[in-house]
Amino acid sequence: MAVSTAGRVRPNKKRSPWKRRLKIAFALVFLMTLVLFIVGGLIWSGELSKAQEKIPKLESLLGQYSNQPSVIVSADGQTLFTIASEYRRPIKDLRKEVPDSVRNATIAAEDKRFYDHEGIDTMAIMRVLFTNAKEGRMAQGGSTLTMQLAKRLYSDGSRTFQRKLEDMAMAVQMERVLSKDEILRLYFNQVYYGRKAYGIQAAADIYFGKKLDQLTIGEAAMLARCVRRPSQENPIDNPKKAIENRDVVLSIMRSERMISEEEYEKALQEPLKVRKTAVRAVAGVKLAPYFVDYVLEVLHDEFPHIDLGAGGYRIETTLNMKMQTKAEEEVRKLVRNNRSRRVTTAAFLLMTRSGEIKAMVGGVDYKRNQYNVITQGRRQPGSAWKPFVYASAFESGRLSPRDTLSNAQYVFRDPYTGYQKVFKNASGRYGGQVSIRTAISQSLNMPALRAMERAGPATMVGYAHRAFGFESELDPVIALALGAGAVSPLEMAQGYSVFALEGDRATAYGIRRIVGPDGSVVREFRPDIKVNVISKSTAEAISSFLRAVVTSGTGRIARSVNNARGKTGTTSENRDAWFCGYTDELVGIGWIANERPNPNPNAALKWVYEPMSRSAFGGTVTITMWQPIMAYAQKLMGEKARRIEEKSYGGGDSIPAGIRSDDTGDEVPAPGDVPANPDDGPVTSPDGTPVGPQRPAEDGGGGADGVRPDEDRGGDVMVEICADSGARATRYCPETVVRPFRRGTQPRRACSLHGP
Questions:
Q1: Does 401 lie in the same domain as 501?
Q2: CA–centroid distance for 578 within its chain
Q3: Quick one: 42 and 126 in the same domain?
């Protein structure tokens, strides 16, 4: 212990530990505050710099960041359809177009100190910080009108500190360069009011059907508060809440002396009168409209959660616009050139071997009739169905490609009911044994019925669904051999792909990729190939026979198409006429008909299909659009001609020379005309035994000049004429038909259109 000079003892001084710690703590807090201030200043400076860069192109950026419409595009980049996502009616002059009541209502509802702050309302922020700290979350925003406008430049919609900092920096920069009126005009044009209405002028139209200068004070107040929860509290979807919000805004307007007490009381009593008819915002015209409808239907069925109207989606399709344009031109041309044959509509589907739809024309005039025959139509395919019949018989082991079949007239007898149906050839000629190659290439009806008899109708229907991909309901009746079932052209394309792919089946598809609003891929589509649905040997045999259709049968007009194989089909009374075929790379399905408005205005079906002229056949009319479309598509795809070896399957013919194609008027009974055979066993008519009235085989041949002889039937003369020229048929005419003429009026000159 120390002793002082005065003789008093002084204690040693020791510093208190808590004081030392307190000083250290203060120093650390000061240092941290300084660091935070410097770092915060740098961050704030950086945000201000970024915001400043956007100011010169502010209005264009606001448009860019608004919701973009959803689009459907072709494979070659053309926009096929734009789905409107926004309805806008922009304001150009604030003072001239926006009344004081509308401006005041918005300011009262969203930013009372709008004309006093410089982009950031410090008092509001302090209130929000206190509230958020108390509740432990971002419960309130405290945004000014300028900050809300700035928020439109950042599309992620997050509620983070970084996002708030960006909004504040942008608001400050906007206030530095723009007047309050300019900011308010931009706000009125950009803010979302619900129901696809962007901007207050669009909202006034959507909800009330009025212009801004027609709005009452109550309506202006209701719209002003609508921006907080536009989808939940707008006047249409939630009128009760909209009225509550209106009253809140009116109270603020009164307290801020924007309206008088009398105006306030009057506005409170206003009844809500919303617009009765919805505003339709249409964006753009459909290209390839039938295809676009098909794509929209697929999206609706397979992706019900996708709201294209919300905007931002990009639907990338398989369509090739050059091929589509060519297909549309040829469909219109065919109808225009065949009005005299009562052809009033046509349809065409073009797809690749892998199933990509390259062109789809569902009718001749979309404005007149939006019914898409390709996907929605269920039409009888006539003889175009026969390849499936023979393939089913081959696959079931009931028939071989080397077999021959009788062309004698075929009679169906139901052993249980005694029902009898006599099937006919349009030419009225029968007899002889034919190879399957001849039966298919010349489209003979009687052999097809016997092939169905051997396979069994139920077996054939099973193969149609399981192997060839048909989803339409098919009755297991013997008449199905002649195409009595109703199927769509889309199904026919998938069925014919089995032969093109040597036993595999392609599923048709029109969408390649769906891209979401954020740029992510929602779904990517790839070819869907079902392998080995039939044997390769069966597919090769049918393909060889379909090649004969083109080289020497009913489809010879298609010979100019490289590597073409196909089948004609014409139904009873010429109500439908088809040409279905394929090349090494493409599958094409063509169809024509006589479409007429239903005379019964109350009928469910607005359109009916009446008979065409008796000269409108698949091999003479439909094929005339199939040939140029396929040739053009081949050129674009670079498909070259190659030598196709037609395999010999034996089975020689013993058929009279006068027996020609039945595809000039296949008689196809209506579905249900012939009942199903319960046991699928043999039906009737022993193979090769003539049944019913017969024409002697020796009568079928022509003379030395190849002209077919006439047949005397009482007062009329039955003459076989060329379907193309109307002159007397020769052995070279690909399509013929027998017609009655009064004696002395029958054509005498032989056809000069066909032959050497």
A1: yes
A2: 23
A3: no
Taking alpha carbons only, the member of 62, 231, 87 closest to residue 155 is: 62
**How many separate domains does the chain show?**
4
CA distance linking residue 372 with residue 490, whole number of Å: 11
pLDDT in tens, 728-738: 887 666 666 66
For tokens 């390259």, what's the residue? 358
Residue 148 located in a structural domain: yes
Query: What pLDDT is recorded for position 519?
Result: 83
Place of tokens 């055979």: 677
User: Do both 31 and 128 map to the same domain?
Assistant: no
Q: Does residue 462 lie in a domain region?
A: yes
Predicted TM-score (pTM) of the model is: 0.65
Measured CA to CA in angstroms, residue 239 lies from 221, 222, 236, 269, 274 at distances of: 13, 10, 6, 15, 9
pLDDT at 48: 61
Model confidence over 541-562: pLDDT tens digits? 999 999 999 998 999 999 999 9
Give the per-residue pLDDT at 602. Answer: 78
Are 358 and 424 in the same domain? yes
Residues of the chain where predicted confidence (pLDDT) is lower than 70: 1-16, 19, 21, 23, 27, 30, 33-67, 85, 121-142, 152-164, 280-284, 310, 426, 650-716, 723-725, 731-739, 753-756
pLDDT for residue 39: 57
Q: Domain end: 223, 253, 268, which one?
A: 268
Q: Give the tens place of pLDDT for each residue, 113-172.
A: 888 887 776 666 666 555 655 555 444 456 788 888 777 665 444 456 666 677 777 778
Quote the domain boundaries for residue 715.
Answer: 701-742
**Cβ density class 127-164: b for 16+ within 10 Å, e for less:** ebeeeeeeeeeeeebbbbbbbbbbbbbeeeeeeeeeeb
Distance of CA 320 to the CA centre of its chain: 14
Last residue of a domain, one of 603, 637, 671: 637
Please provide the DSSP assignment of 328-340 as one string: HHHHHHHHHHTGG
CATH code, domain carrying 532: 3.40.710.10
Q: Are the beta carbons of 384 and 567 closer than 8 angstroms? A: yes
Q: Say how far apart CA 451 and CA 111 lie, in whole Å.
A: 83
Tell me, yes or no, whether 629 and 722 share the same domain.
no
Question: What's the Rg (C-alpha) of the chain?
Answer: 40
Q: Is 741:716 a contact under the CB 8 Å cutoff? A: yes
Residue linked to tokens 């192997």: 467
Whole-number pLDDT of residue 666: 43
Mark whether 369 and 478 lie in a shared domain.
yes
Residues 681-690 have pLDDT tens digits of: 333 333 333 3
CATH code, domain with 134: 1.10.3810.10
> Are residues 49 and 94 both part of a single domain?
no
CA distance 172 to 156: 21
Side-chain half-sphere exposure of 695, counting CA atoms within 13 A? 22
Backbone φ, ψ for residue 166 (5° rounding): -65, -45
Taken in order 142, 145, 151, 152, the sign of the CA dihedral is positive
The mean predicted confidence, pLDDT, of the chain is: 81
Q: Are residues 249 and 340 in the same domain?
A: no
> How big, in percent rounded to 5, are the helix, strand and coil portions of the chain?
40, 15, 45
d(Cα 307, Cα 291) in Å, to the nearest integer?
A: 19
At residue 440, the pLDDT reads: 95
Distant-in-sequence, close-in-space partners of 378: CB < 8 Å, separation ≥ 6: 472, 486, 487, 488
78 within some domain: no
Residue 562 in any domain: the answer is: yes
